[in-house]
Write a structure and sequence with these properties.
Layout (H helix, E strand, L loop, with lengths): L10 H4 L10 H11 L3 H16 L4 H28 L17 H10 L3 H4 L3 E5 L6 H13 L5 E5 H13 L3 H8 L4 E7 L6 H14 L4 E6 L7 H4 L2 H12 L2 E5 L5 H11 L4
Parallel strand pairs: 1-4, 1-5, 2-3, 3-4
Helix pairs in contact: 2-3, 3-4, 8-9, 8-10, 10-12
């Protein structure tokens, strides 16, 4: 059986097929990074690629630089959201707090709290002192430092808080509101006892404190000593129960210093500006 003759290749058959168009890798990668929700890498990978080629970086070094930038951007965004959500006074920071006015042991207490480990242990922080002694500023400054570490805190005055709790109770939303507040590692209650509240208002506040007991930290300021808290909670039994829940697992700071506002006013009168 003879083999079939091989047909000689024609000129047309010898022509190469047209080259396949190369995909646009840059556009493809941009779309993929968008889908993966990596905006910082998406915006920086071309710039970093040029630098990596210029400086002869390895693939691992190039990738490490991009992921580091992405993580840093996400951390900055999270801290910004936590700071906004906290409702802290923007002007009351750690850097502008007058530590020199405080006794050394109080400064050391605040410095120790700065690492945030008390939040992990669900401990409370209770600051006592006269009006103008810097209690609110101290807690805001401490909370600012904790938020910069990625911790979640919420600042509110006692008066505003009890009004919100009371409205939630009347609308049958009190358990829901307490659950929402439990999402914060630290709840800052400023000026407990500064404004006299009704019995009903103090009952909802006690409910909140009882629910947070050993579940989340309470950071609290008051100008009233414990011996006068019956003026706040209206009866001896509720007062004792509230103190017991707050003091157990707590750090107590007494800021026995003169009013900063009074001192400033005196200095202004003594040394008037020209």
């Amino acid at each position: 059986m003879t083999k079939a003759a091989t047909k000689p290749a024609t000129r047309a058959s010898r022509k190469q097929a047209p080259p396949t168009a190369k995909p646009d890798r840059t556009a493809q990668l941009t779309d993929q990074l968008k889908e993966l929700r990596l905006p910082t890498i998406r915006d920086r990978f071309q710039e970093s690629a040029v630098r990596a080629e210029t400086e002869n970086l390895s693939h691992l070094e190039y990738l490490s630089e991009l992921t580091t930038r992405e993580c840093e951007a996400r951390r900055e965004g999270r801290i910004k959201r936590l700071m906004t959500r906290s409702k802290l006074h923007p002007g009351k920071t750690w850097d502008n707090f007058k530590f020199k006015r405080l006794p050394l042991h109080v400064v050391r207490q605040l410095e120790t709290l700065r690492d945030g480990s008390f939040l992990d242990r669900r401990e409370n922080v209770l600051l006592f002192g006269k009006p103008g002694s810097g209690k609110s500023h101290a807690l805001c400054a401490l909370s600012e430092q904790l938020i910069l570490q990625g911790r979640s805190l919420l600042f509110t005055t006692c008066s505003l808080l009890v009004q919100q709790l009371l409205i939630a109770k009347r609308d049958l939303r009190l358990p829901k509101m307490i659950k929402q507040l439990s999402s914060f590692e630290g709840l800052i209650i400023d000026d407990l006892g500064y404004v006299q509240q009704s019995r009903e208002e103090m009952e909802v506040l006690f409910t909140l404190l009882a629910e947070r007991y050993e579940r989340g930290s309470v950071l609290l300021t008051s100008n009233l000593a414990f011996s006068k808290w019956d003026q706040i909670f209206k009866d001896a039994m509720t007062t004792a129960a509230a103190i017991d829940r707050l003091v157990h697992h707590s750090v107590i700071i007494e800021m026995n210093v003169p009013s900063y506002r009074v001192e400033t006013a005196k200095n202004t009168k003594t040394n008037p500006s020209p």
